[in-house]
Amino acid sequence: MADIPSDAPQHCPGTASEQAGKTSACQGCPNQNLCSSGATKAPDPAIEEIAEKMLTVKHKILVLSGKGGVGKSTFSAHLAHALASDATKEVALLDVDICGPSIPRIMGLEGEQVAGLSLCLSPRYVEDNLAVMSIGFLLSSPDDAVIWRGPKKNGMIKQFLRDVDWGELDYLIVDTPPGTSDEHLSIVQYLSSARIDGAVIITTPQEVSLQDVRKEIRFCQKVQLPIIGVVENMSGFVCPKCKNTSQIFPPTTGGAERMCEEMNLTLLGRVPLDPRIGKSCDEGKSFLTEVPDSPAAAAYHSIVQSIQAYCLSHVPREESAG
Amino acid sequence: FDVNLMLNCGNLAQVQHVVLILSGKGGVGKSTLTTELALALRHSGKKVGILDVDLCGPSIPRMLSVGKPEVHQCDLGWVPVYTDAQKSLALMSIGFLLEDPDEAVVWRGPKKTALIGQFVSDVAWGELDVLLVDTPPGTSDEHLAVLENLKKQHKVDGAILITTPQAVSTGDVRREITFCKKTGLRILGIVENMSGFVCPHCSECSNIFSKGGGEELAKLTGSVYLGSVPLDPLLTTSIEEGKDFIQTFPDSATFSAINSIAQTLLTSIQNP
């Protein structure tokens, strides 16, 4: 049963929802009896199909935050670039931010749209070993808005996981939107029979961010998603002229370091604010290649190494024995 | 005949103007600017309300230092939380309804839609000059819900769109502009936040998040450019500590920028 059947009313909660058949919007829907009987809440067959697909993907990493604008997409993109710098590794980046897909621009793939909302789900390649998928590729114009409610977003995410021909991958990185809602629940649900290595949580130092990030961490704990560690982004700004450091986003409550201590998590590293990062993203270039000697690039490399080490050391016994 | 409409139509009846704060892009300062604009409007003598419909990341309670107050019900619905005894600034946020501030609101769209419907119609705002509605990033359930419910109750004056200068932001805000056009929501103007950083040590200006994108976006889309607000550690610290920046730093360039935007906004909604 499709998550939103074609004959469903406007505010259909989705056939797999707890409220299926029971909301006021369900009145009069031809599927109401079926939904309220619970028949549509049987496990989605897509979960097993996706698990099958994911057998050829060695490591799956989610990049989460809870807070918007902390640098999830920037980090996801540069994690992908760094992992793909080893030509023997196959890497893919999946952008499930349906409303605000930044990855095409950051990866230099803007303008790779296909005319009209296309069903074409072939990933685009930045390098031979670096594939990217985003709803951005399916939009015909930079002004196109994806004004979709939850159930329709979930359907797209299912398609991305099940119907994109990822092939054999060493790493699949999933960039997410801020929040703890449909996209996050769907990604975790659809990958529930495939093993996710873990989540990298991005924050900035100030409490306004940490407040939201703690909720994301609780979400991960609730759905039993392991947390690889936390990255503190925009961690101080060194003035290029006088070299003094300013804490533009001040760690008034101890920043990510104190949060990690309190929540027993690994602080993977801190990345300073560097105007050249934003510039690289705007131009679709890798900051790691553009400004390789900067403190920010060094911070990124160290963080990526920690993530790789985590992935390689947390392989389940059945896989490592074979 | 909609009985719900009849029962609830009182709650927004004495609210003169309703303005949405939108972006499309996360982390550009919607909540910060909603708070600052509310404080600026209050300073110029207006009675202001803030409705925070960011269910996953409700930031406004902390920014206004209201802590974890109990939310009471009256005959007309929920009583908003006031930041002062004069009741010049009223606030309703889901942050108030959570037992545990670190508790995640892990809800799918339909549940968010239902709560937002209640928030819009069941808060007893009383008399307000302006109600500002802070939203999460995106163009999804929350935005559709708040707009649909506001339209049933009240004329919506329009929306202010917040961006930061760089293309990665304006790229998302363009889509939000399309959302506004498609839903018939008047765009009151675009504000460019984090517009340059002046080093407090040597006064060198660094364009950390690039430059000029807000104005270009306004030109490209035929929207009004309301102005820019710089990156100011004094503002971010103020917001962190829930202090009234406007009272603490009335002479700062940042306050001047925010106040100018507030006054332009007021003129725009009072003379549509």
Structure description:
The complex is a heterodimer of chains A (322) and B (272). By secondary structure, chain A is of the alpha/beta class. Helix content of chain A is 36%, strand content 15%. Chain A contains twelve helices and ten strands. In chain A, strand 8 and strand 9 form a beta hairpin. In chain A, helix 3 (72-84) packs across helix 11 (295-313) and helix 5 (150-163) packs parallel to helix 6. The model of chain A is unreliable at 114-118 and 317-322 (pLDDT under 50). Chain B is of the alpha/beta class and 272 residues long. In chain B, helix 6 (167-183) packs parallel to helix 7 (213-221). Chain B contains ten helices and twelve strands. The two termini of chain B are 30 Å apart. At the A-B interface, helix 5, helix 6, helix 7 and helix 9 of A face helix 4, helix 5, helix 6 and helix 8 of B.
List the helices and strands and how they pair.
The complex is a heterodimer of chains A (322) and B (272).
Chain A (H helix, E strand, L loop, with lengths): L31 H5 L8 H9 L3 E8 L7 H13 L6 E5 L7 H4 L17 E4 L2 E5 L15 H14 L5 E7 L6 H9 L7 E6 L3 H16 L4 E6 L4 E2 L6 E2 L8 H9 L3 E4 L4 H9 L3 H4 L4 H19 L3 H5 L1
Parallel strand pairs in A: 1-5, 1-6, 2-4, 2-5, 6-7, 7-10
Antiparallel strand pairs in A: 3-4, 8-9
Chain B lengths: L2 H6 L6 E8 L7 H14 L4 E5 L7 H4 L9 E2 L2 E2 L2 E2 L6 E5 L15 H14 L5 E7 L6 H13 L4 E6 L3 H17 L3 E6 L4 E2 L6 E2 L6 H9 L3 E4 L4 H8 L4 H4 L4 H18 L2
Parallel strand pairs in B: 1-7, 1-8, 2-6, 2-7, 8-9, 9-12
Antiparallel strand pairs in B: 3-4, 5-6, 10-11
Helix pairs in contact in B: 2-10, 4-5, 6-7
